[in-house]
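Write out structure tokens for Histidine kinase N-terminal 7TM region domain-containing protein.
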Amino acid sequence: MLEKIQFLLSMQIIGLCILGGIMMLLRSFGNRARHILGWSMIMWAAMAVIRNIVNFYLHDAKEAFHPDVLIASCFVVACLAAYVIEKLRPGYLTFKRFSIFLSPVIIGGLSYLTYRLCGGEIHVYYSVRDVFNDLNLDVCLRLLVFALTVVYMALPIYLVMKYGKEYSEYLSENVSDPEN
């Protein structure tokens, strides 16, 4: 019964992310921030699909720090951070800056893919304690992608704290009073 509930909730989340992303893309009307958010929602749905494929049932032991989930979540978090940047500073993220901003995620993902294709040993860990028992290249690459995810999660918080007042002033001068 619990597996069915988990499956239904996962399908609802995936459906909402896909439909929400499509709605944001259809109604973006040249608004780059909405465009980024729409694609981020679709990628979030892809991340949920990857998570369901990798770690589906509740009664099975879950793999900790699965590389596919780490890379997909890092990419989604980076795109959501790009949304915050575009919202706070409209027009700042050109294609070149967006590519540079996402390059650590792409390099991290490609380095792990190269490690896999070159015959690197892939370990399965079921707890965080198991991850830190033996530090090898596999674990270091996973921790690198995890650290990138944490940095991309902290960046929007920092930017909102730094530019929040300026953004409110910009809205009150150019759009409307954010207090009303």
